[in-house]
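Researcher: Structure prediction, please.
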Amino acid sequence: MPPGMLARQVASMANRIFLSENDLHDELQTTLAALAAIEYRHEMEREQLAQRLGSQAVVQRLWEERERRYQAEREPYLRKLERLQQQIRWHMTSGL
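Model: Predicted structure follows.
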C-alpha cells in the first residue's frame, strides 16, 4: 500500500460517518456558536485598533496579525460546517 493511502482512506471514511438528526442539530449549533464567538472577538479587536493612537504602520501590522489569527481560527470551523452541510443534504435527500 502506498504511503499515506491508509490515512486518506480513514479520513474519507470519517467524512462519510453520518450523524443522527439530533446529533447533527447539536453539532451545527455548536459550530455556529463557535464561529459567532470568533466573529464577535474579531469585531471587538477591530474597533479597539480603530481607536488606537500611534504609528499607522504599527496599527497596520497589528491589524494584519489579528487578521491572520482570525482566518486561522475560523478555518477548522468552516471545514466542519461544510461537512455538516453535506450531511444535512444527505438527510434531506435520503428521505425521498
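Model: The longest helix spans residues 56-94.
Researcher: Thanks, that helps.
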